[in-house]
Amino acid sequence: MRRISARLLALILLFSPVLSAGSEDTFPPAVDDLLQYVLRPPTTTYQGKIRTSLSSNGRLRTEDANVYFRPGNVYRWEFVNPEGKLSRTVVSDGTKEYVRVPGGKKVQEGAAVKSAAKLLGEDREKALLEANYKTSALPPRTEAGRSVLGLALWPKVAGKPCQEFWIDQETGVILRVKRFLPGMATSAETRFLEFTPNAALSDDLFLFKTEPGERVVAHDLDPDFLSLDALLKATGRSIHPPFNLPEGFVFESADFFEEGKTVLLQVRYTDGLAVLSLFRTEKAIQPAAPDIAPQPGAERLSGPIHTVQWKKGSYYYLLMGDLSKRLLETVSTHFK
Amino acid sequence: MNQHPDGPILSAYLDEELDASETTRVRQHEALCSRCREELTSLRGVKDLLAAAQRRTMPEGLAARLESMIHRRSVWEIVLARLSMPRVWVPVGTLAAAAAALLFWLGPSFGPDPDAIPLETLLAAHARYEAESLVPSGDLLHVPFSAHVAKTDEED
């Protein structure tokens, strides 16, 4: 009895940071507890080196970055090209994000990711996720020299993406994430090659200062989360898409932006994981060449994002998302 | 199958890309529906035309260069750079047939338009929005967005 208690105590102590999210101290943690870790922002300061990879039909494209992070959405990413030179730096103070290219004349400024509330509440988005995807635990393994627990989100409908997470047992930070369409030879992945939690990071890393000859400009690509009424007030343009689409997608928000002198409307849908963008414009949109020329032997769309385009009345439409081409075409029929 | 299968399904049927059950359903529908039989006959004609078009031998090394160019046109990667329209080395007959096929599928509204809105802008807007998802994606989505922004800076 005494030996059993000692083992149990050792396990609880070993995995206590992760287990603290759950209601019971069990190992492996319940899938729901892992999902909570995935959905909440990191609470640990860290630095590391990450690699993003896009694998497509046997070809691999990668990009590395040095990453520094503090809770509160404060981060710095230094992207490094294959020659080892700095290609761009992204710095966020939690509200603003700056993108700088070495030797450039401008620093692009925008809102930090997740610094504004969406139209759809988090509870509703999570409910959609749980309604449209199955969660399952993956066997524990090692990433960046650290013990991780795995979680997979699998769609209940064919043609939607699957996402896998590998979560650091000590800190709950996601050390590897992979997204792919089951059955297709395309995947996108981010993984830590090196990871140092609780690193002592200088404030200077997260301070943005212009350098001589640089000026700060807004890139104007920040998303707004508008209702259709607010979109009408802002643009004078009305659009009446369905609020619910097949396979669990619901309207989340609308937005607009300008390309040249043309105003584009963007209507977004989510099923909790995958998102769809419907664009409407009065001007033709450049087609994705592989998308509209599926001739035998031609290069097919190889990335995880597919598009469907059509014209209705005087408007041009484009639907975009990382669904299979067939499912996206099925969904698009509900707009036509 | 009570409803007429749409164009992409028929195309996939001809290319033998449907699974067994869908293939059976389309085949059964084809047997009963004269309209879809006519459409399939038309599609087969386009396909045969493309297959029969005279081909020329590519210059040495061009295939590798095209491979590289086409790879850059991958929609996912297109966010990383504003690229020029792809140039494709095809026989004239094939090009004409392909244009006819495109017009057949899409109608005249999607012909080449040099003033068309670049797709990269839409992809960047979509990627930036995806980064706001409740489920984190590491920087899978934010990487192409910041690359797009950085590229805009370089172009200016």
Short description:
The complex is a heterodimer of chains A (336) and B (156). With 336 residues, chain A is α+β, with helices and mostly antiparallel strands. Chain A has helices spanning 2-19, 31-39, 122-132, 228-235, 289-292, 325-332, and strands spanning 46-56, 59-70, 74-80, 86-93, 96-100, 106-111, 133-143, 146-155, 162-168, 174-180, 186-197, 215-218, 250-259, 262-270, 275-281, 306-312, 315-321.
Distance N terminus to C terminus of chain B? 54 Å
Structural class of chain A: alpha+beta
**What composes the largest sheet of chain A?**
12 strands, mixed
Largest interface: A-B, 90 and 62 residues
Shape of chain A: globular
By secondary-structure content and strand pairing, the structural class of chain B works out as: mainly alpha
Q: What overall form of chain B do the CA principal axes indicate?
A: elongated
Care to count the β-strands of chain A? 17
Instruction: Please state the oligomeric state of the protein chains shown.
Output: heterodimer
Query: How are helices and strands ordered from N to C of chain A?
Result: HHEEEEEEHEEEEEEHEEEHEEH
- Low-pLDDT regions of chain B: 78-111
